[in-house]
Amino acid sequence: MKVRAGWEGRFFEDFEIDDVYQHPLGRTITDTDNTWFTLLTMNTNEAHFNAEVGKASEFGKPLVVSTLTIAIAIGQSVIDTTQNAFANLGLDKLRLSHPVYAGDTLWSESIVLAKRESASRPDAGIVTIKTRTINQHGDEVLSFVRTFYIHRRGAPRAGAGFPEPKEPLVVHDWERPA
Which of 16, 134, 142, 154 is the most buried (most CB within 10 A)? Predict the structure, then answer.
């Protein structure tokens, strides 16, 4: 039996300026997501959770709280950009360009704007990306520029790694398909 490593994410060396990563997971936002996020973050603006207030607004229905949209966009980008990052350094030029509603499905993509060696951390570098998020109709709903510290491949602090199992993974004959 051969153990094959799963996706380990990108390291500093893997980033090239102008590379685009279309992040693989779309996310449909539900009313429950929106309500829970407003409660979690103590956002008391009823435009996000009161159907009557939303109906009376220029949008005609409740809006998804913008910080949830931001959180989803950043989360969608992690698999391709910051799986091996250890610190966000900045979030700049944030634009919320189109309303988001419960039922919308969001996808994000990022382009590498810059990268440089770290002067103080020889096992790391600094990368800057622009991320944008689009809905199911192709409308851009959000964009921002994010800068982060990221480990070099082989850096001693890069990832905790898979723990050593106390016993090997065993497959019994009765578990295999006939």
Answer: 142
